Amino acid sequence: MARPREFDRDTALQRAIETFAMHGFEGTTTPMLLSAMKIGRQSLYDTFGDKRKLYLEALRRYSEDSVGATLSAMFASDSVLDGIEQALLRFAKEATTGTGQACLGIHAVTEFGTTASDVAAVTADVTARTLLAFESRIRDGIARGELATGLDPSDAAHFLLATLSGLKVAARGGASFEVLRGIVRVALGALATR
User: Considering the domain boundaries, does residue 29 fall inside one?
Assistant: First the structure.
């Protein structure tokens, strides 16, 4: 008879996310994961499969949570510009606190690019959903007169996505929240009506 699991799966997965975010896939060893997750080797394999399957599940969970929180912040305000500002500032705040400086999504893109189809499928899905939400909000902002009428919604959505990535990379390099807030101000200025 199999022994019952003696750990919380979600807690263990969150610890794996933090470990992969800090060290990347290649830089994270199985012993590092076991120590961080506070589980045994057999529990890792029985519950999550191998290291690659655990990484993909961690990347999916991290991406869903991160994108969900960012987009929720963006749509929480009636004002399009204020919503975009709140989303970027929330992202910047997260990037400069605790383990937020390490980003599993950025690691996945920089470590794998498009060379690993399983990883690229996760990052492409998250990217597509984020761009779609940004583009929708930008179109709304242009129609309301809150954003510059000359903006191309697709280009502006890609600009915001690159801004999010840049905020995480800058934070990882040691940029403070104040520095990131300045980046957000410049980004908002690029979108606002003139």
Answer: no
Q: How far is CA 183 from CA 22, 119, 126, 186, in A?
A: 24, 29, 23, 5
Instruction: Give the integer Cα–Cα distance in Å for 65 and 69.
Output: 6
- The interaxial angle of helices 80-95 and 51-75, nearest 10 deg, is 140
CA 22 – CA 146 distance, rounded (Å): 38
In tens, the pLDDT along 156-171 reads 999 999 999 999 899 9
Residue 94 lies in a domain: yes
Residue 139 maps to which CATH number? 1.10.357.10
What is the number of structural domains in the chain? Answer: 1
Determine if the pTM surpasses 0.85: yes
pLDDT in tens, 98-155: 665 578 888 899 899 889 999 999 999 999 999 999 999 999 999 999 999 999 999 9
- Nearest one of 61, 74, 51 to 14, comparing CA atoms: 61
What's the token pair of residue 29? 């060893």
Contact between 18 and 102 (Cβ < 8 Å): yes
Rounded Cα distance, 129 and 168, in Å: 19
